[in-house]
Design goal:
By secondary structure, this protein is α/β, with parallel strands linked by helices. Helices cover about 30% and strands about 30% of the residues.
């Protein structure tokens, strides 16, 4: 039985270097955490699919234009027919700093809270950006953000991303049958917007 739409949409955030240090200090094993990473809470059944040692975990990184202006990055992890898609509207200083960290480090990190168990799982995936200059150019040249349309645009994009076939399978042997979306909500106070459009 597949999870309902509301059970597959999760709020996510990007931890800044200070938040990462605080999070690491609170974990039992005191792992070495990167300065920027995704943080979200997911059901145990979903996290277990990515912890399965027999499963091959694939990943993908895409940039999409937002209809209200700006760009959205989507970092995807896939295990068999399940995709975890983390949607990052590149609209504030934190998300731009995260993107620069990704370009420099060449890897993505997820720190996932397991809702039922009060435990944490960490996943790291290589994500080399082949042409950082082009990526920066695309993000910088995105049309100015119309803030008044932001909420509707994010709702539309999330609804689209929740469709299993919205992002093609990263594993040719498997069709995507279930998608979970972690949405990083932009920090309005950090955004530079053009509301005149």
């Amino acid at each position: 039985m597949h999870a309902t739409l509301s059970q597959r949409l999760h709020l996510a955030r990007i931890l800044t270097p200070q938040q990462s240090q605080t999070e690491a200090a609170g974990l039992k094993q005191r792992p070495s955490l990167p300065p920027y990473m995704f943080h979200a809470a997911l059901p145990d059944a979903v996290v277990q699919r990515f912890e399965d040692r027999t499963a091959y975990i694939a990943r993908r990184f895409n940039i999409y234009p937002l209809p209200c202006g700006g760009c959205m990055a989507v970092a995807t992890l896939q295990s068999d027919g399940l995709q975890l898609r983390t949607a990052v509207p590149l609209l504030d200083r934190t998300t731009h700093a995260w993107l620069e960290h990704l370009i420099a480090a060449g890897e993505l990190t997820w720190l996932l809270e397991i809702e039922e168990l009060r435990q944490t799982a960490q996943f790291v995936a290589r994500c080399d950006i082949p042409d950082p200059a082009e990526l920066r150019r695309v993000v910088a040249q995105a049309s100015p953000l119309r803030r008044v349309e932001l909420a509707g645009a994010l709702e539309f994009q999330c609804a689209a991303l929740l469709e299993p076939l919205a992002i093609e399978s990263c594993l040719p042997a498997f069709q995507v049958t279930e998608a979970h979306v972690g949405l990083v909500v932009p920090d309005i106070a950090q955004m530079v917007a053009d509301d005149s459009h």
